[in-house]
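Researcher: Next entry in the queue.
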Amino acid sequence: MRLIVHWLLNACALLAVAYLMPSSIAVASFAAAMAAALVLGLVNAVLRPLLVLLTLPVTLLTLGLFLFVLNGLMFWLAGSLLEGFVVSGFWPGVFGAMLYSIFSSILSSLFAGREGHR
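Model: Structure for this entry, 118 residues:
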């Protein structure tokens, strides 16, 4: 149950990012946002650890700032894999990934706070 709620919260975070960056990121519908959240989760769970390991020297050299590049690339990749989710370029992908991470963290912490009060 918690996984489904987290998935829904990530879809809402993705809709918020699309609302704040309408010229750069577009989400066609809530179903497209759910599909994009699923693809983002899968890409970040499967592909991102491999890329982090392969780019470890660059990440260490840039004091971790290269992780923003990787997050932007993963966001952009998810946008290129889906029909209803469009990311218009690399920099919108980087800024969208940052906003998505912030919104997702806020929504998850709000949900975790409510869950602890039961």
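Model: Strands lie at 25-27, 85-87.
Researcher: Noted, moving on.
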